[in-house]
Amino acid sequence: xQQTFDNDKRKLLSxxxxxxxxFNALVVSVAVPIAILFVSEDPVVKANAKEAINFHFxxxxxGGIIGVLAFLTLGLAGLILGxxxxxxxxxxxxxxxxxxxTTPEASVHYPxxxxxx
Length: 117
Description:
Elements: H1 7-19, H2 28-39, H3 43-72, H4 76-102
Helix pairs in contact: 1-2, 1-3, 1-4, 2-3, 3-4
């Protein structure tokens, strides 16, 4: 039996999963997609929540690597890689929110990330 889901609710929850990374850079922001993953029954929303969780982990990983490189190079790597990381982090998140709002029937997949889930 085919089950239908509300597109407006799907758009809102999917965009909230991806946009939660703007709340803060701490662990609190990943709690939103984790909660939505457990609460929602919509398969597209669940896929978007998993992808958002994976993106959070990747942002933390790349930020940590850039932080260590910046420490080792006395800040030079941070001056060069920091703005690139920041632009990619924000740019990919804005792109994912846009994709969630324009094509709610498909889940978003970030390019160039490691997927743990």
